[in-house]
Specification:
The chain is mostly helical. Helices cover 54% and strands 4% of the residues. The chain is built from 19 helices and six strands. The longest helix has 32 residues. The radius of gyration is 22 Å and the shape is globular. The chain starts with 23 loop residues before the first helix and ends in an 8-residue tail after the last strand.
Length: 408
């Protein structure tokens, strides 16, 4: 049977797959076996990685650390320093960002804090040489027919990643390393492989670190922070986070929620790209590090706060719009051009920003993404309830198990 095409004004961006048009019945039927199989294969894959790490003598037993007490020196004891003669690869690492150098790893000081936070919370240190060996072994794995097709798509998307950032231009080192990391991950997790959006995440980490560190930071975001659910067949994570965001808009931005309902606007129409890239395709590359400083500590709570702040900033423009294109422009079009030369109009509308009941006057000439990241930390949401929603979402049936979250 022929699929019914969506009206032009209800099409989502290129990150939304065709599976969004599947009916709930078919969606559930498709998702159940794929997720069940995926979990079994994921368990086996993680067991292989665990065995490999044990063979390489990765140290264990370090006490779990509290993310609330993060500081530059909080995790200084958790990173294993290889012998000095083994630092051949690290010496080739060149800084692209302005975050300062890390003494013991080929990355900036900011990326080292991210690594220490992630692996400190796992209860063991990050052994660079061990993880580097696994990464190199992944790159040596033979290509399958499907992986060749993925690599062709990766090559296309590499050219579209941070096009105005010099490091990622003209088929240089940045593009070469970006392609290598994406190919390595497609072999590391063949059940997902490569999905558009991953290129911006990996590119953001490469801006702060070597390819090995970037790879394992990317793995941590997908596995430890559960972004992997967004890329699973059927996109269960996308439905989970857009539903939570929809509830938060209802609770915190009543006028916008009502306006969206009256004009048939769904959250996934503008938030899908935010989710697939964690705003890496939206933020200017120099400020992505500030976003991840908060995300690695507060996880999805910060992501939701950031979304609410963006909508709150654009509330006036949203409410005065009646056409879909006009309504979406301030919250989508202007933001997604942050890697082009057309950002002036976006900052121009932020001269007077209503946040948390106060008017914050910031000259357009001095406004930047750091202001918005800072403002989002002041957003007030019911964090306990949101954590309950995150933990009780049924990925197979695309719904919340409300009987288990009433306690929140």
């Amino acid at each position: 049977s022929t699929k019914k095409a969506l009206p032009e004004n209800k099409k989502t961006d290129f990150f939304v797959k065709e599976k969004l048009n599947v009916s709930p019945e078919k969606k559930q039927a498709k998702t159940k076996p794929s997720i069940a199989t995926d979990r079994a294969e994921e368990k086996a894959r993680k067991q292989c990685i665990r065995i490999k790490l044990e063979e390489l003598n990765v140290p264990k037993g370090i006490e779990k650390l509290n993310p609330a007490n993060v500081s530059r020196n909080s995790f200084a004891h958790t990173t294993t320093l290889p012998p000095k003669q083994e630092f051949i690869f690290e010496e080739k690492f060149k800084h692209k960002c302005k975050c300062g150098s890390a003494d013991s790893l080929p990355c900036c000081a900011r990326a080292k804090r991210w690594i220490d936070l992630v692996y400190g919370n796992k209860g063991h240190s990050f052994n660079y040489q061990s993880h580097k060996k696994i990464y190199e072994d992944l790159l040596k794995l033979p290509r399958s027919k499907s992986s060749k097709e993925e690599e062709a798509q990766i090559k296309k998307d590499v050219n579209r990643t941070f096009p105005l950032t010099e490091y990622f231009r003209d088929f240089g080192e940045g593009q070469r390393l970006l392609e290598r990391v994406l190919v390595a991950y497609s072999k590391y997790d063949p059940n997902i492989g490569y999905v558009q959006g991953m290129n911006f995440l990996v590119g953001a980490f490469l801006y702060h670190s070597s390819e090995v560190i970037a790879f394992w930071l990317f793995v941590a975001v997908l596995e430890d922070y559960e972004l992997r659910e967004v890329f699973l067949p059927g996109l269960p994570g996308l439905y989970k986070h857009t539903q939570i965001l929809d509830l938060l808009v209802l609770e915190n931005l009543h006028s916008i929620y009502k306006h969206f309902c009256e004009n048939y606007i769904k959250v996934e129409m503008f938030a899908t790209e935010w989710l697939f890239t964690l705003f890496c395709s939206v933020l200017k590359i120099d400020y992505i590090g500030n976003f991840f400083d908060m995300f690695f500590v507060d996880s999805w709570i910060f992501f939701y706060k950031f979304c609410i702040t963006l909508l709150r900033i654009h509330e006036r423009d949203i409410l005065k719009s009646r056409e879909l294109s006009e309504m979406m422009a301030p919250i989508k079009n202007e933001l997604t051009h942050s890697h082009s030369k057309s950002t002036a109009s976006y900052w121009g509308i932020l001269k007077s920003v209503p946040v948390l009941g106060n008017i914050i006057n910031i000259p357009a000439s001095s406004m930047n993404w750091l202001h918005i990241i800072t403002l989002s930390q002041g957003e007030i949401i019911n964090e306990k309830y949101v954590k309950g929603l995150l933990s009780k979402y049924d990925l197979e049936n695309h719904r919340f198990n409300f009987s288990k979250i009433n306690q929140y």
